[in-house]
Write a sequence for this structure.
């Protein structure tokens, strides 16, 4: 219970809440698109650089197993999400595949919030975790699109190349991957020059980004009610299943308790930056109301409030068993 | 004053992700240029992905009547079923009209 309160009362989570409330009371608050786009560039590059700097000092062997595990999670989570959506969500093939793409991919902000939470709890995760975010971003979307095309969806064949292009060349992969490479090439010493800009303001920038996410999620919350009980339940159950799997695997792979909790949060999260654009292109017939509402309106707030503390708890449980 | 020529201004309002495809389509039909704005609005489709990933785009192009018809026919065949898209044309008087008749 303490862990739950500790997680909720943090600037990042409360700023998200502020955004939701602002939407709810119909405030005229809005984050200008240029500001939000600029912040997302800043945040993604900062994460990449930080991860890259620690890659420079991490032996490749240490990362191999967690990297393969992340790849495996990127393949398993869209499959389970697809079947859960078909069986219990009663969605059609295209809608299920679209939702699966989102759950297979990763939410960078959930990753950041989880990182903050484990830092506050005094169990920081491994420095190479940002590299795993980049690994987890792509396969989920590909697997999910396979479901749609496997079902004889002629329309998706043309969109395939475009969707892949959207994901791989999208700003999140370019900035995250680019930052990782730059950080790894330069190493911590050379990055010290840019560190004042990228490290000092990072959490403050994240707070403003969270207000924007809160505003967008607030819009989705109204749709969440209309989405029906089944989807509401799935939006909370899927992150728990995927997250627990992620924490379990990470613990087996020998990651630290903090790192395992963060990887769990990554596996349990649903993307809402890379995936929606790619899915819109590849599966135009899938209804965006389903995947956006699930990813942003249900699963993201759920993870922020309950998922992250739960994965921390699980991480310690697994650690003591194994 | 230069001679005025009657042309058609075709306006397309669509989701951000269609931007490049639409511009390619215009070029393919022989449009010699285009003007693009980012816009926002609301329509019968309600929620859509572009709401999150950037605004909608509005593309204007000046073309001959035949080209306008072929553009509108192809867009309606390709995109009307699954996408949020609006397309209309108006008659316009254009100066230096020879620039637009490729």
């Amino acid at each position: 219970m303490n862990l739950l309160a500790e997680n909720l009362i943090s600037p990042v989570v409360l700023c998200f809440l502020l955004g939701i409330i602002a939407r709810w009371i119909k405030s005229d608050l809005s984050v200008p698109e240029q500001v939000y786009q600029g912040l997302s560039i800043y945040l993604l590059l900062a994460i990449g650089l930080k991860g890259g700097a620690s890659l420079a000092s991490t032996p490749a062997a240490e990362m191999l197993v967690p990297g393969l595990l992340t790849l495996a999670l990127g393949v398993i989570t869209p499959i389970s999400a697809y079947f859960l959506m078909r069986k219990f969500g009663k969605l059609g093939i295209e809608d299920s595949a679209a939702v699966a793409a989102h759950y297979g991919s990763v939410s960078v902000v959930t990753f950041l919030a989880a990182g903050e939470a484990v830092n506050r709890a005094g169990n920081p995760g491994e420095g190479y975790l940002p590299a795993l975010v980049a690994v987890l971003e792509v396969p989920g979307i590909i697997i999910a699109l396979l479901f749609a095309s496997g079902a004889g969806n002629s329309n998706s064949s043309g969109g395939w190349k475009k969707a892949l292009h959207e994901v791989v060349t999208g700003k999140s992969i370019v900035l995250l991957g680019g930052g990782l490479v730059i950080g790894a090439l330069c190493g911590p010493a050379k990055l010290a020059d840019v560190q004042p800009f990228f490290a000092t303001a990072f959490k403050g920038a994240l707070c403003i980004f969270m207000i924007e996410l809160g505003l967008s999620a607030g819009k989705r919350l109204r749709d969440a009610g209309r989405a029906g009980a089944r989807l509401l339940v799935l939006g909370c159950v899927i992150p728990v299943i995927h997250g627990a799997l992620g924490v379990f695997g990470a613990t087996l792979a020998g990651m630290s308790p903090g790192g395992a909790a963060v990887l769990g949060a990554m596996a349990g999260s649903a993307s809402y930056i890379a995936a929606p654009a790619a899915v819109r292109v590849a599966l135009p017939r899938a209804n965006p109301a389903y995947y956006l509402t699930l990813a942003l309106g249900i699963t993201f707030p759920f993870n922020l409030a309950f998922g992250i503390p739960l994965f921390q708890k699980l991480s310690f449980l697994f650690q003591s068993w194994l | 004053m230069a001679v005025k020529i009657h042309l058609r201004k075709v306006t397309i309002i669509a989701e951000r992700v269609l931007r490049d495809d639409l511009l390619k389509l215009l070029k393919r039909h022989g449009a010699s240029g285009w003007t693009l704005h980012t816009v926002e609005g609301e329509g019968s489709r309600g929620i859509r992905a572009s709401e999150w990933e950037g605004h909608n785009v509005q593309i204007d192009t000046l073309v001959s009547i035949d080209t306008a018809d072929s553009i509108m026919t192809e867009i309606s065949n390709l995109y009307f079923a699954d996408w949020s898209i609006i397309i209309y044309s108006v008659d316009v008087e254009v100066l230096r009209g020879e620039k637009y008749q490729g």
In short: Helices of chain B lie at 19-28, 65-79. The first strand of chain B starts at residue 4 and ends at 14.
